[in-house]
Specification:
The protein is globular. The longest helix is centred in the middle third of the chain and has 20 residues. The strands form two sheets. The chain has a seven-stranded antiparallel beta sheet, with helices on one face. A two-stranded antiparallel sheet has the order 8-9. By secondary structure, the protein is of the alpha+beta class.
Length: 207
């Protein structure tokens, strides 16, 4: 089994809290993620994705396994045509600038993706997604919504003011105020076993 590892970082000209809040709005991902046609929020932990990459349509489900406001969101796939896990982290640079780091482990599916991956296709896609996220949040000047809940690897969850059942269908939102926190040292790629992802049952690598 071949697993492709990719990590990209970008600095955005918005406060940390605004950048983090926007990333919690998963149903907005098609606005800046290439190949993502739809993300449907199922509940606070789970989303259903529809993608089209290199002409190939796929559907899959993801689970949030670690989410700490203003610091990180870690996820993994739990069903469907795609196998991946990853984490996005947020680092406050100053009151008006934030560093966003996206690291992923992806198991390419099919000959097209494997050939493309050999040419750095996945790396370019992630870099492009972050660049488009930067343009999206900076153009709007503020987030389109927010969800300030805490999801821990142990399975515990706090709603941050909004219960999962009370989330509007347009995305995860919360009535909290709109701004801090840091991630690990800048420039260092977090090792997969420190991403906050629980070990897969009976297998050290991908599910």
């Amino acid at each position: 089994m071949t697993v492709s590892m990719v990590e990209q970082t970008i600095d955005v000209d918005v406060p940390l809290r605004n950048a983090y809040n926007q990333w919690t709005q998963f149903e907005d991902f098609p606005n800046f993620m290439e190949g993502v046609e739809e993300v449907r929020q199922v509940d606070a932990r789970h989303c259903h994705w529809r993608t089209k990459v290199a002409g190939v349509r796929r559907e899959f489900d993801t689970e949030i396994v670690d989410q700490l406001p203003d610091e990180r969101i870690a996820w993994r796939t739990v069903g469907g045509d795609v196998k991946q896990k990853g984490v996005v982290t947020f680092q406050r640079l100053d009151p008006d600038h934030t560093r966003v780091r996206l690291a992923m482990d992806v198991e390419p599916e099919g000959m097209t993706e494997k050939a493309g991956d050999a040419l750095g296709f996945l790396d370019r896609r992630v870099k492009g997604d972050l660049k488009r996220f930067k343009g999206f949040i900076e153009e709007h000047g503020h987030e389109t919504g927010q969800w300030r809940g805490r999801i821990s690897p142990s399975g515990e969850m706090s709603s941050g003011g909004t219960s999962p059942g009370g989330m509007p269908p347009g995305g995860r939102q919360d009535g909290g105020a709109m701004g801090g926190g840091t991630t690990g040292g800048a420039g260092s790629r977090p090792a997969p076993d420190t991403w906050g992802l629980p070990p897969e049952p009976g297998e050290p690598g991908m599910r």
